[in-house]
Predict the structure.
Amino acid sequence: RSYEYIQTSEPKPGVGQVTLHRPKALNALCTPLITELNQALGEFNSSDSVSVIILTGSEKAFAAGADIKEMAPLTFSKAYTTSFIESWSQLATQVKKPIIAAVSGHALGGGCELAMMCDILYCTESANFGQPEIKLGTIPGAGGSQRLTRAVGKSKAMELILTGKSFSGVDAAQWGLAAKAFPSYEALMEGTMKTAETIAGYSKVAIIGAKEVVNKSQDLPLRDGVEYERRVFHGIFGSQDQKIGMKAFAEKKKAEWTHE
Ligand code: HXC
């Protein structure tokens, strides 16, 4: 399938990749781009051949934000009645398979927010993150105030969002927003693929269960979250792969997953 603003591929067994590709606008996230992204993610999500998804941009830009030129003339009533930006959250709410963001270059505003919606965030040391909306007379609108605050704490998030100052990939990794910052673009893409392949080597049932329970920690109080985890953990005893994985351990063999 061919898209206008993104590219898709399956670079390794079990790995689906979406590359944001709107180079002339540094991957500014216009509504048609998000529509294509949601289509591609939906297809990978229901594809038997994909276990994990990589979301990336170019070396220069993951995404320089929501499309400012599209937003400039928007009115309150238009934004409100069309639920402007709501469709962005499909990435965070509709995709059961883990998504790894590989961020190089600019990840600003909506670009930073999109990266933060992903399940694992990898970046280059020189990546340029930020929530600069305040400079445009507005505020983050795709979860930035919530996800950045959960990741780095209130005081730092408040400072970043109120000043609009950007921060580096080194900062992102130090603060725990990114799982890792790589020294170069090549190292980022290689490291991302390696992690994706590691994950794709496991049972899909466990992969999806693991993602589900970790994400619950962001929504539920601890006690409810622990209980939720236990229920899903119990449920996984109903899978073939739990039997296969534990039997293989006992027999010192490599597990051959059925994904059932
Ligand atoms: C629309 C954008 C854009 C954006 C860049 N472009 N960012 N178009 N929306 N967010 C376009 C430029 O207009 C320009 O088009 C081309 O991409 C190249 O950009 P330059 O500015 O010439 O590149 P450079 O000098 O290298 O500067 C890179 C940059 C700068 C620092 C990233 O482009 C920039 O500050 N962009 C805006 C970043 C931002 O404020 N993002 C937050 C947006 S608000 P032309 O046609 O002139 O060549 C937001 C709200 C989120 O995201 C809330 C809801 C999701």
